[in-house]
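Entry 12.
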Amino acid sequence: MEQLSERQNTILRGVIETHIETSLPVGSRYVGEKCAFSFSPATIRNEMGILEEIGYLTHPHISSGRIPTDHGYRYYLDHTCFDESLKSDPLARVAQALVPAHDEEQAEDFIDRVSLVLSSLSQEIGLTLMPFEDSKILAKIERLKLSLQGLTHLLEKPEFQDVHKIKSLLRAFEEKVTLAKWLLEHANEEQVSVSVGSEHENEALEDCAIVMVRYSAGRHRKGAIAILGPKRMPYRQVIPLVSSMAVLVGNILERMENKDL
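Predicted 3D structure (tokens):
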């Protein structure tokens, strides 16, 4: 992946974050004004042309502005510092939303609620994989529960108005064992990771990004949570949400397990 100059990196970040906010192709004058760049529109236009030549930006129409490519998103994700912790007030609200509804709540019901909270807070699809013991996962993969909530949020996005794309997505979501295996293979235990577009190696998900992490639920038990949405997800908000949720979910499930012992 080609290294960018500081100016090119700044402009690429501006284009991506503007596209994330508006969902529209981004022009040089607009991004310069919105991001209060000190560079002239001509300089921004020239640098955006270079970014397109090296594969970080593209334009859907000849006269339109630019949008990021998968390579552009990957560079942005790899070269941007994201705060992986929620602020205290939002964290307290999330923790309150995850408190088991009653003492007898089953882990399966709790997992559904986790996915629902993820989806509600992000306005994307929430995914939660039940905790498992590492030594037994291969033998029990088909018995693991993968909860998926919030499909309607995805259907409201402008990227997913094509009927054929929606049908492909629905088929992919129906194959929960395949999705569970994919999460197990790609979710990191140390920090939140993001897979974008073609990186999923699944054509049905080529317009999507997945922000994911594993969580620890005690006694060598692991699970995973994720948020799936369009590639222009607001990563600055989604990454800390996923990171903080993983800690909360792991702690609650560990307490639920210890109570049942």
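Annotation: The chain has two domains: 6-78, 88-260. The CA atoms of residues 194 and 211 lie 5 Å apart.
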